[in-house]
Amino acid sequence: MKVFILIFQLHHAMKLQGILLLPLFIASTIGTIIPTQVDLEPKTIHISSTAGGISHIAWTLEIGKVLAERGHNVSFLTIDPYIKFGVPYEPHIKTISMGPHISNVQFRDLFDTDDAFSTKVTDAYTQVIEDTYIRDYFAYKYIFSSSNTSIVICDQLSLPCFDAAKELNIPMVIHMTMSLSRDARAPFITFYHLTDQPTTLHQSFSQRFYERYILLPKFIYRYLPVAVAIKKARQTIDVEGFDPLARDSNVIKMVNSFWGLESPRPVGPLVEYVGPIIGTSYESLPSYLIDFMQQHQRVIYIAFGQMYNPSYQEFNVLLTSLLEAYENGFFDGFIWSLSKTSRQGLPKKIKTNSGKTYSVQGLFDGSYSDLRFELWSPQFAILDHEHCKLFVSHGGASSIHESLYNGVPLLLHPFTSDQPANAHNIANAGVALVLDRKAHNVTDTFEKLRAILLDKDGFFASNMEGMQKLVQLKSKRKHYAADIIEEVLYTVRNQSDIWHRREVREKISWFKATNWDVDLVALVIMLVVAISISKAIWRLLNKALVPRKWKIE
User: Where are the transmembrane segments (predicted)?
Assistant: First the structure.
């Protein structure tokens, strides 16, 4: 009997094992299937930028290089002064110039560091539109129509690029360094040009009231001539008005930023944050700067971008504060990148609280070995060095990206545009402090230098550890950005309709999209019910009170 049971159990086990091995047997017999993708036909892609500087251009060319490596025909459309930015990307990307810069207005004239509502700014915008719009529109239109263009990637400031693509029904993507479109803002987000606060989070009631009902109308009124100039230029060549920044523009807005530099909020399906995109390679340190960095353990790097430099008073305060921090041993050397033209009209001497006087010209000439002024410096390479402990910057997006990527905290001296908002966001993240240009003094600057450089409680180091990792992780997204462009390339309908990203609200009325029709009916029902209940209660009270009154009598 026991033998019989043992045989039965063995048979059952073998049968069960056979059942379990059956899928493996079938798989080995019929093989495996590897997912395959359809072949994507190479396309003609144009990247355009005719204003700004390298911070507007380099990151998009990094994306363009990825697209070129995938087999696409990629070109960089620009004007003569910016041809140099395309040279490092040859032969992957072909640079095509649309001609010289034909306006007396320079990009820096479009901003006023003291007054965002300056008539100079309005006049500059108006003039540049009158000078360049028609020439650029026809240049874009000719290039697009003669090169079998599949998609165009236009800079946020390239209005003629948008209009030419729209006219030819070519899909487009906007590339921008900061969020400007309406589907990338929320009610609590303020306008970058109106205030140095990126959100209303820390604003009082009076500040919010002033901004919404005084500052905003003033802004609209002041920039009305610019809107008129755009409308007139379009009417001159019979171009239909088009707002590529609108929520329903059917244009993807690709932003070289990330949550951490940007204030987190809901965004629409046409907004993509793809940054911070860091270059594939950067210029290394020359030998004399290698020696300087190796000989100094705690170095500060100071630079304020290509367009703005401190005024006489700002330079005086900054340099005095730095020299006093140097005398106190907070750092042992600095490198200040300052062009020859920016050295004009500055103080001749600086005197510190110790009574020591420094010759500014002597600093420029290299008389103080620990304190270097350079006409140009390889910024990324300096920030990458382990002995660089602080970056004093204007707060431009590219400078912030490079500093955070290398884990270097910042002392920010913002001038205009997106710089004040960038500065406050990074300060709120606990990796920077901000200087107020309008209340700039040595004591405040010195104390902020001390706070970051000494970092006694490890506040900045602790916050920077996570921020550096965040930035380095996000910096890998240029391939994702290239995927977005290919997504548009291969999925549009009717040549330019990005149908799969259109919001449903575009197809329904405002009442239905917001459920106001349902809410109004519900409100009416609740009012009717409330009134009915009130009447019923009133009738019951009357019936209850009348007999009681008779009894009392």
Answer: 520-541
Residues 342-376: b if buried by 16+ CB within 10 A, e if exposed: eeeebeeebebeeeeebebeebbeeebeebbbbee
Residue 424 to residue 435: CA distance in whole angstroms: 10
With a CB cutoff of 8 Å and minimum separation 6, the contacts of 165 are: 140, 144, 152, 154, 171, 172, 496
Which residues are bridge partners to 335 per DSSP?
A: 301, 372
Q: What parts of the chain have a pLDDT lower than 70?
A: 1-30, 181-198, 546-553
Kindly state the tokens that stand for 269: 């399906």
Instruction: State the pTM of this model.
Output: 0.85
Residues in the chain: 553
Please write the tens of the pLDDT for every residue from 257-306: 999 888 888 888 999 999 999 998 899 999 999 999 999 999 999 999 87
The Cα angle at residue 264 between residues 259 and 421, in degrees rounded to 5: 80
Tokens 């009012």, located at residue? 527
Q: Give phi and psi for 303, each to the nearest 5.
A: -160, 145
pLDDT tens digit sequence for 390-425:
999 999 999 999 999 999 999 999 988 888 888 999
- Distance set, CA 303 to CA 113, 276, 337, 436 (Å): 17, 20, 5, 17
